[in-house]
Amino acid sequence: MNSPSKALMTRILVGYLGLYPTLLLVLTLLKPITEHQSFPMMVLIEVIVLVPVTQLISFPLAGWLITQLKNFKNLF
Q1: Which residues cross the membrane (predicted)?
Q2: CB count, 10 Å around CB of 14?
Q3: 14 domain residue, yes or no
Q4: Taken in order 59, 22, 19, 72, is the CA torsion positive or negative?
Q5: Would you give the distance in Å from CA 66 to the centre of its chain?
Q6: What per-residue confidence (pLDDT) applies to 3?
Q7: pLDDT score, position 31
Q8: Distance, CA of 38 to CA of 49 (rounded, Å)
Q9: In whole angstroms, what is the distance from residue 6 CA to residue 12 CA?
Q10: CA 46 to CA 70: how far, in whole Å?
Q11: In-domain check, residue 55
């Protein structure tokens, strides 16, 4: 696989690792608050919480994890 394709696949993997668990956690924690809201209001509340958490915590953590796995793989 050439470098641009490999870099793209790594970014996609970081996105999956960063977004999916965060989305599950945020939706679960916000359910008591959002379950009686209209759909647009529910989505707004979830996005207000989800975007900073993913950008500041989840994506950097997922990127770090991928880097550690690559370094571990290079040891062997």
Answers
A1: 12-30, 42-66
A2: 20
A3: no
A4: positive
A5: 13
A6: 73
A7: 96
A8: 17
A9: 10
A10: 33
A11: yes
Please report whether residue 24 resides in a domain. no
What whole-number distance in Å separates Cα of residue 59 and Cα of residue 48? 16
- Band the pLDDT of 1: cuts 50, 70, 90: low
- Supply 6's token pair: 């490999």
Count Cβ atoms within 10 A of the Cβ of residue 58 and give its class: 0-12 exposed, 13-18 middle, 19 or more buried: buried
Q: Is 20 contained in some domain?
A: no
- Indicate the pLDDT class of residue 76, thresholds 50, 70 and 90: low
Q: How far apart are the first and last CA of the chain?
A: 20
- Locate all alpha helices (DSSP H) within the chain, ordered by sequence: 3-34, 39-53, 59-75
Residue 69 belongs to domain spanning:
37-75
Structural domain count, the chain: 1
